[in-house]
Specification:
- Helix content is 30%, strand content 22%.
- It has 334 residues and is α+β, with helices and mostly antiparallel strands.
- The chain has one domain: Jelly Rolls (Sandwich), CATH 2.60.120.650.
- It has a 9-stranded mixed sheet, covered by helices on one side. It has a 6-stranded antiparallel sheet with strand order 11-10-7-14-9-12, with no helix packed on it.
- It is globular and about 65 Å long.
- The two termini are 20 Å apart.
């Protein structure tokens, strides 16, 4: 093990601050943004009443009851302390089966909680605004029985966990294994890095990190604690000493290439060549012509800051949920 990532509050946050101020205490927002956000893990050890009234098992049960109505995913994982295997894919289940699954031992992931819980949704949007995050934010709930959780993996989003009930023991890499990965990844049973939805041959050299699990830092999350991991940070987590209930706020990056193309798409599609596809005898020449036209459209977009600002705001309002690396049926956050 290497150095600690824990900062401990001497008491509750001062009254009158924002929800984000309370979540980050004892670290201030500017310090958090300068030294931790997107950079390195931080465990903020809090106080037992920090998240009082935010969420509990009854709230989770209400969310699960609306599974079909709101298209909420309920998944389970069989990863268990001591099995030392690769992170398994989540298995989709019906919400009516959760009690039986918990009785047998498992970790249940309910996603997205904010679709069915107004308090959680309001907090998610307040955190998004306070951090100036332009990508989507979604919230998962994890209820894990003793020893269950998730084996070693990383996510393509910032993972911010708030511990509601019980304890969960985490092991995290002291820095991201891959900075801003384009997809989630896990270690298989042989210790090989595997990306969800990717073949090994498709990976670039920067996507093939070495993994030194001996360097991981151990953190015990207790009620009122916060753990924030940059995208690409290796982690594993298992409930410790009893059941664990936590909320996970996932801050996914905005897909910049997709957004840029959305901004220039209307002008390009005024031309039949952009609507007809490619079917001519010289497809490479045709593609080169389209690329030149795209570059011209992007230069024009950059030259008019007023129009760009307006259209950017419109695009973000229309499509707040698009991101890279979001794979809801794959191995996910612990």
């Amino acid at each position: 093990m290497t150095g600690s990532v824990t900062l401990t509050a001497s008491g509750p946050a001062p009254a009158g601050g924002s929800a984000l101020d309370e979540l980050l205490y004892p670290v201030g927002l500017e310090e958090f943004r300068a030294h931790y956000w997107h950079r390195r893990p931080i465990h903020l050890s809090g106080w037992s009443g920090r998240f009082a009234g935010l969420f509990d098992r009854e709230a989770l049960a209400r969310v699960i009851r609306r599974q079909r109505e709101l298209r909420i995913s309920v998944r389970v994982s069989g990863d268990h302390e001591g099995d030392d295997g690769g992170a398994a894919a989540h298995v989709l289940i019906d919400g009516d089966d959760v009690v039986d699954r918990l009785r047998s031992g498992t970790s249940v992931c309910v996603d997205p909680v904010d679709r069915a819980d107004a308090r959680v949704a309001a907090l998610a949007q307040e955190l998004r605004a306070g951090l100036g995050h332009l990508g989507p934010v979604s919230v998962k709930a994890y209820l894990s029985t003793p020893g269950f959780g998730f084996n070693t993996h990383f996510d393509a989003q910032v993972v911010t966990t708030v511990q509601i009930e019980g304890c969960k023991r985490w092991r995290v890499s002291p820095e991201p294994g891959v900075a801003f990965p384009a997809a989630n990844a896990f270690l298989d049973g042989t210790g090989t890095v595997r990306y969800n939805g990717r073949t090994p041959a498709s990976l670039a050299p920067w996507e093939r990190p070495g993994v030194n699990r001996d360097s991981f830092v151990e953190v015990l999350l207790q009620p009122g604690d916060v753990l924030c991991l940059p995208a690409g940070t290796w982690h594993e987590a298992k409930a410790s000493g009893g059941d664990s209930l936590a909320l996970n706020f996932s801050f996914a990056p905005l897909d910049i290439p997709e957004l840029l193309f959305e901004l220039v798409r209307p002008a390009l599609q005024e031309h039949t060549a952009w609507r007809s596809g490619m079917s001519g005898p010289q497809p490479l020449a045709e593609l080169a012509s389209r690329a030149t036209e795209l570059a011209t459209a992007l230069r024009q977009l950059a030259a008019d800051s007023d129009v760009t600002t307006q259209r950017l705001a419109e695009a973000l309002t229309r499509a707040p949920g698009r991101s890279i690396g979001t794979q809801p049926a794959a191995a996910g956050h612990a």
